[in-house]
Amino acid sequence: MQLVLVIFFVSCYCTKYVSGVTTQSSENVTVKEKDTIEEVNVIKNNYHELLKRVINNEIEIVDLKNQKQYLKNDLENTKRYMTCQMEDIKDFTEEKYNNLNETKAALMKTMISFSQSLKLLNETMQELSYRQPEKCEENKTECNCTESFHETIASPGYPLEYSNNLAKNWSIDVGSGYRVELQFTNFTTELKYDVVMVYDAVDATDLMGSFSGDDLPPPMISTGRYMFLTFTSDNNVQYTGFSANVYKITST
Question: HSE-up of 170 (CA within 13 Å, CB side)?
Answer without folding.
Answer: 22
